[in-house]
Amino acid sequence: MTRAECTLAEQRAGAIALGEASDGERESYRRHLTGCARCLLELGGEREIERIMTTVARARDDERWEPDLRPVFARRAVRRSLWAWAGALAAVIVLVAAWRVAEAPRPVPVHTISALETRSIAALGTQTAARREGRAESLVLGAKLLTASLSVSVDGRGKPVRCSIVKSSGSLALDESICRAALHPHTP
Amino acid sequence: MDATRAAHDSAAIARARAEALVIEYQTKLARYVRRMVGDAEAALDLTQEVFLSAYRMLQAEPTRELHAGWLYRAATNAGISFLRRKKIVRMLPLDREIDRASWRVDERSAASVDLQNALARLAPEQSAALLLTSYAGYSSAEAAAILGTTADAVRQRVCRAMRILRNIMKEGVE
Question: Is A101 on the interface with B (CB under 8 A)?
Fold first, then answer.
């Protein structure tokens, strides 16, 4: 017998076991067994198949286990729901924290001035001089969006005593004007 | 307000439908899974997971049709995954020893023990084929649809499961 014929016989034996075999399939299985000692030995005839399947049916009928999953299911569903709420709450907290960080005051340019407005530069000097420490400030200068950084040192009374350009605006004259305004804020 | 009420109603419908599924299928499904994995505790966990999956699905889509076949397919996949994980953890060939504590005294008949011994020696897909047909009552074509294979393949798996069971019954007699 070929392997394919034995495979077909296995399928027919399965059909017989499940009560799905037609008369033709049963007859074909019987014919196969008469010529295949191996299948006869391993699978057995129709009555043997029915005997085995009776064992399966008996085992099924013996079962008495009747678990009640409803309380457990309800608890787990509620627990999952609580976890979902906790997750949502955590997400809200994170979002609020992120928003507060984003909204926190950021360093901004001391002033935005027109490059040619000396008065504004003087006002800038006023703001800078009020700080009691030497530090660089970034400036946006007018519509040209020039930037410059300067360091202004102040004495113990807050009076600006020294100015140095950390990053030039690109115009020496403008750099000097800025420093002059920072050191002498009230000079027009 | 209407949207909130609609969401609430949908959740209530999903919950009611999931509970109806639990009531109708919990015993059959838990028994099926217990036979497959040979462990009552694991069977309970896996069966709960199946119902929770159904519940989540119904929450997302309250009008969706969920047939018993869906539950059995999910349970079969859960059982197969469980057995594969167990096999990997143990680093041993598939060996599903019977957890005797999982079976009540009145269930430990010769037939029950023989069947469980046979299932322990079968590949999970073969166990599933035998259990879906002879235990859950599906035809080979229906079981094939659940397992994603052909009816002939299911019949062949049933035959191979039967052969193992036959050998075990012979060993018991000898």
Answer: no
